[in-house]
Please model this.
Amino acid sequence: MVSNPDCTFGGVQVGPGPVTISGGHATSAAFTPPAIGHYCFRAEYTPDQFAPYSPSNHTDTTLECFSVNAQTALNTNAGGPYTIGVDGTVALSDLATLSGGTSDATGTINFTLYDDAGCTHSVGTASATVAGADGDQYTSSPPIVVSATGTYHWIASYVSGDTSKNASTTSACSAPNENPVVNPRPTSVTTNAGGPYVLGADGTVALSDTATLSGGTSAAGGTITFMLFSDSACANQVGGDVTTAVDGADGQDYTSPPITVNAAGTYYWVASYGGDANNVASSTACGDENETPLVIKPHISVSKSPDAQTILIGQTANFTITVTNDGDSTLTDVHVTDALAPGCARTKADIPGLASMAPGAIVTYTCSLANVTASLTNVAIATGKPPVGPDVSASDTAVVTAVAPATHPAIVIVKNPKSQTVTSGGTATFTITVTNTGDVALTDVTVADALSPNCNKTIGTLAPGQAVSYTCTRPNVTASFNNVAVVTGKAGATTVTAQDTAPVTAKAKPLTPPTVKPKVVSHKKPKATG
Model:
């Protein structure tokens, strides 16, 4: 065995000495190279006495050369498992430990990543420059970015820079620790169904749920399925499933299509995200916080009694008002208004119980309307404020009929003197007294006296018990007559009348003797003439 490059000289003997040829074959003793390098076996044939020999062929030599280098090994670890990032990608690297070689080893480690178990479909390559193979670690560069979940497979190949010293080596497909798993991102669904809600005038309300999908990728797809139930066990579904398409699971909000309900009570939403290749499915649970919207049906009623009453004009109408919270939610700031009977209005300042009325609460009070002068239909309106939604109101009517009391209109006229005698051609004088003897006022009171026109008079209005007196005359009475004075008056549609008679007797004038004028004697002197 020689170690010089061309094996022409030197060398060491292998074994205890020459080996005898047997059957044309000779095998050397075993030799362990003490170090890496280039080696050659040189076999020299020396003829024995049975073979011809001459100096020219004394050294009949055979050469077999070979190199002894270090047998390197790759021990790799790709790490993991990994979770795909929010952006839908993850960077994978491989870590290779190169051992068994020399400290001055050179070359390159090539890393190839595959997405199939047979390592036939490459998704990227990377490398690392070797500077030592005696336990040195090398990380693939650059990292290979993948955008799909699943199991990947690395193969690392060391290409020696000096094969005479360090042998190349390659890891196998699916070698231990070379199969990194990329998992989808876990997601979570939090929801808020809002509320409480109020049944509308048509007895229905549309409910929606808002789901916040978090933890996933920004490009997540799939759908969120919303289900609404009417019981706490989520056994009785209301309507069918409704879905919303997903476009991102990194804190995005998604609102369900509405589901219409027609009954008050507590409802229960369940929202389920179906996931996709890069995002794990997730769901809320029945009864989760903020997933139990309350649907209320607030209502108030008011009763004003009696429903109808009849009173005399000028009297007082009395009422009893009852306010009831006959809904399913507390009402606050309850108040009653009554336009035609302001004394029946009430607020929480008047009745503390009106400040807050729980379901089933009742408040009752009495009130009145004084001096009713005409019939009316009285309306009491009760209003309360529910926790949400518009105020609720109710009204009730009470009919009040105002009637006039039964009346007894009457009038009396007295003409005095009851009789009188006047000298023919003289004047008759009368005193006329008109009295309202009824219990109701009389209007348009007039006196007519056909034979004594001077006694005609318009009096106007007379209150019950009121009397009016006046005097009048009939001049130039030349004949006796029965004087009749007639009085009329009105009480509403009723006309009352009365009359009185006062006879007048005319007498002839007494006879008067003729008057004789005395003769007048003149004592004047006659007037001179001539």
